[in-house]
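Show me a record, fold above all:
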Amino acid sequence: MFAQILGETTCGIDGVQILVEVDVSNGLPSFDLVGLPAMAVRESKERVKAALRNSDYPFPMTRITVNLAPADLRKEGSGLDLPIAIGLMTCGRILEPEKLENKVFIGELSLDGRIRKVSGVLSMIMDAKKCGAQEVYIPQANAAEGKLIHGIDVYTVATLKELVEHLQGKNTLTPLPKENILQNNNKIYHVDFADVKGQLVARRRSQYPDGGFSGLWQDNAGAPLSDDSAADDGGRGTGGHQDLQHCGTFAAGRQRHAGASVPQSASQHQRQRASGRRQYTAPGGGYFGT
């Protein structure tokens, strides 16, 4: 018995449609999975076997061959568990092949038959729509992504048994409602950087926080520095001499290093310039002047 089921995987950030070919023939019991599968895909054999048995569906104890086409593309992730299981049930005549046309199945199977969340579902649904699929079945945990793609019916399923009953017509599911990716924003902003003439450096500096970079240089009180305060601060732009007056541990730690100069306040610098002398830190922690 032979069956073809549509699945999806990801290649980078793009979705790629995979044709899952399942062949069940006479022979010693074996399960061969070919088509350049990654480790997570190769391990799907045990997950599919346990999920079928724990969902009260028979697992064929014959020779099973599963091919993932195209064979030259490496298949990543665990989202191909569901199409492999659907293909095995189609070969076992549990599902009719005619009812699986233009349907894409995405999901990881747990050992008890539940369908777990997978990554990259949004890209997979977009690719399925581009390839002409009419319906996509995804895990319930990926419902938020399924609502964003228009023009294709997206169904969410919780268990393998629930999906099979829907495909058999016993328990009909409803597709997800659609939502817009971009919401309408009618908020009016009365202040705009476009109204500022010139001041390119200041505008650029103010736009950094919105991009996630460094914040504005501010003093301890939180207000922007004026030209005078910035000059008195020695160009550091952070109220450095005020901070150091309250950071004795920092100043003491700097003194313990041989040859390290101790930061001084603006008034100390002015006195040194007036006297024409400069002070350095001696290895023992004392000062000597020149």
Notes: Residues 2 and 23 are 5 Å apart (CA to CA). The two ends are 97 Å apart (CA to CA). The chain has eleven helices and eleven strands.
